[in-house]
Design goal:
The chain is mainly alpha-helical. The chain has a single domain (3-205), classed as Fido-like domain (Fic-like fold), CATH 1.10.3290.10. Helices cover 53% and strands 3% of the residues. It has helices at 8-20, 28-37, 47-64, 75-85, 114-123, 132-146, 153-167, 180-191, 198-205, and strands at 101-103, 107-109. A two-stranded antiparallel ribbon has the order 1-2. The protein is globular and about 40 Å long. The protein starts with 7 loop residues before the first helix and ends in an 8-residue tail after the last helix.
Length: 213
């Protein structure tokens, strides 16, 4: 496994956030078991929820098998992450949307401009020595607002941004369960362009510190 993935507490926080995005409140011990032994069957989870959890597991396994420190953020990686995270959920997983989608807070969202998606992803290759967490959080928010995929937009964007943070020696972005209601409120405000404070909130209150930082 890549050294960037050697701290289980970082991955547990990321796992729990990715599941929270789908309203699955995975306990810390469940997430730890998922990470340690690949368990994907838990009492109380529906078949659909177990699919989401197993997709998260397989995505982390895919990333852990690659050299994260030499990884470049590009459209191909972004599509691959969505293909794993939205497997058997999205209309066409791993492919940019080619039709409109309805989002309650935004109404009908047209298909994304691939050039804008690629330009946003490329920002992650220029994370500097300043506030990397704020830069990555901004990328997450803008990618999520674009709704580039039929499903799994937040999961895919957060995974990519977190991996690039970990590549730079930082911890991932992960929303604690007790902060999730506020995150959801700020996300809606960001989507509707009423409030742009979500990146700062994520960078300040939702970045998981590394044990060696």
């Amino acid at each position: 496994m890549d050294p960037c993935f050697s701290d289980p507490d970082l991955l547990i926080s990321l796992i729990r956030t990715l599941c929270l995005f789908e309203d699955i409140r995975l306990g810390e011990e469940q997430a730890r078991e998922l990470l340690q032994i690949g368990r994907s069957s838990f009492p109380g989870l529906s078949g659909d929820d177990e699919l989401i959890v197993s997709n998260v597991r397989d995505t982390l396994a895919f990333l852990g098998s690659r050299e994260i420190r030499g990884m470049k953020a590009d459209l191909a990686l972004f599509l691959r992450l969505n293909a794993l995270l939205a497997r058997e959920q999205a209309l066409i997983p791993g492919v940019l949307r080619n039709g409109p989608v309805f989002v309650p807070s935004m109404g009908e969202v047209p298909p994304p401009d691939p050039r804008r998606v690629e330009a946003e992803i490329d920002r992650l290759n220029s994370l500097g020595s300043g506030n990397c967490a704020l830069e990555a959080a901004g990328c997450f928010c803008r990618l999520a607002r674009m709704q580039p995929f039929w499903d799994g937009n937040k999961r895919t964007a957060l995974t990519l941004c977190s991996v690039m943070l970990m590549r730079h020696g930082s911890g991932p972005l992960a929303v604690p369960e007790e902060e999730y209601a506020l995150f959801d409120e700020l996300l809606t405000s960001f989507y509707t362009r009423k409030d742009e404070s979500l990146p700062g909130f994520l960078a300040m209150r939702c970045r998981v510190p590394r044990n060696d930082s």
